[in-house]
Amino acid sequence: MDEPPGPFRCHGVEAVPEALRRLRHDLMAWVLAAGVDEARAQDIVLASYEALANVADHAYDGGGPGVVDLDAAVHPDRIEVIISDHGRWRTPVVDPRPVSLRGRGLLLLRASADRADIASGEAGTVVTLAWDLAPVGP
């Protein structure tokens, strides 16, 4: 692999669908430039976009769209993506339907990433996702 690209940083992105789709495409280009194969790149971008969509759906209540920050970096052993909002964690509303299309975002994050950590507090929520680059040996 060539020299990995520098960190990918996009701060203050409006948490609206059009801006988040553009951010998703920019992230994909960065991940591919890092030398990640297409299938793994799809996992990285899928989980990252799910976290971004959760910001748009859950972090900001009422007064218009908030903003989201995305930082990604290539480390010697992993790619890490950190998505931060400045809203407030809202407890999800239970969907009374027997088969709900809601509430699977966190499952998707955890299934798509090698590690997924979520920390929320008064200053917002930070989602840290990581994918191993080197195979884990015996």
What report would you give on this structure?
This protein has helices at 17-33, 38-59, 105-112, and strands at 8-14, 67-74, 78-85, 115-121, 124-132. With 138 residues, the protein is of the alpha+beta class. It has a five-stranded antiparallel beta sheet with strand order 1-2-3-5-4, covered by helices on one side.
Describe the biggest sheet? 5 strands, antiparallel
Say what oligomer this is: single chain
Indicate the low-confidence ranges by residue numbers: none
Share in β-strands = 25-35%
Shape: globular
N to C succession of SSEs:
EHHEEHEE
Short description:
With 138 residues, this protein is an alpha+beta fold. It is 34% helix and 28% strand. The longest helix has 22 residues.
Write the layout of secondary structure elements.
Elements: E1 8-14, H1 17-33, H2 38-59, E2 67-74, E3 78-85, H3 105-112, E4 115-121, E5 124-132
Antiparallel strand pairs: 1-2, 2-3, 3-5, 4-5
Helix pairs in contact: 1-2, 2-3
Which features would summarize this protein structure in a list?
alpha+beta, five-stranded antiparallel β-sheet, 138 residues, single chain
